[in-house]
Design a protein that fits this description.
This protein has 5 helices and 7 strands. The structure holds inosinic acid.
């Protein structure tokens, strides 16, 4: 069974291939000949994740998986949320995004936040979504060199370190994306047995 993961991100591809084993053949956007960005015009993670999956399904006629992730900060009414990658502008700079977020939280006491991932699967014309979350707080300064995006300023609940101070293995045990992908994999492996 062949499924396209609507991404060219090597880490995402490796993670999902590793978890699914041999049962499914996971192909990338490059493998199906798609060049360029996928549409992301919706106002929610659910909407964007679905929009990307539907785009591939409609244009390439292949079962597919798409994901969308956002950092939701309580004191900012859920921002940057669906706009996480372009919070400080369309140039999508993680440094600028983190600096803007730290600035916008300067006078706020409440620093609670969560990462949330929505994975959409379209298989045999049916759509299903899977959610993963990790709760935590935004630190006052950046620390750590690992990871990407907002990792240097996100401290998961129950920990003292930021995601960027953890190894990838440690982060993967508790991350939003891992939780959503685990749910997807469980569903697919069950389907494969039916
Ligand atoms: P995407 O939907 O996976 O492309 O994620 C959108 C944006 O959310 C990224 O550009 C990052 O800024 C942020 N983001 C997503 N996942 C993570 C993470 O695990 N750590 C830090 N930032 C993340």
């Amino acid at each position: 069974m062949k499924i396209c993961l609507a991404s060219n991100n090597e880490n995402k591809l490796r993670e999902i291939k590793h978890k699914l084993g041999e049962t499914f053949e996971i192909v990338s956007l490059a493998d199906i000949g798609h060049v360029g960005e996928l549409p992301e015009n919706q106002k929610t993670l659910e909407g964007n994740s679905l929009e990307k999956a539907e785009y591939i399904y409609k244009n390439y006629g292949i079962d597919c998986i798409a994901d969308d992730t956002g950092l939701e900060v309580v004191a900012l009414d859920g921002a940057p949320g669906v706009y996480s990658s372009r919070y400080a502008g369309p140039h999508k700079s993680s440094e600028d995004n983190m600096n803007l977020l730290l600035k916008n939280l300067q006078i706020k006491e409440d620093r609670r936040a969560q990462f949330r991932t929505i994975v959409t699967l379209i298989m045999n014309g049916k759509t299903k979504q899977f959610e993963g979350r990790v709760a935590g707080k935004i630190s006052k300064t950046k620390s750590g060199q690992e990871g990407f995006g907002y990792d240097p300023i996100f401290i998961p609940k129950g920990y003292e370190q930021t995601f960027a101070e953890m190894s990838l293995d440690e982060k993967n045990k508790i991350s939003h994306r891992s939780e959503a992908v685990e749910k997807l994999v469980k569903f697919l492996l069950k389907k494969a047995k039916e």
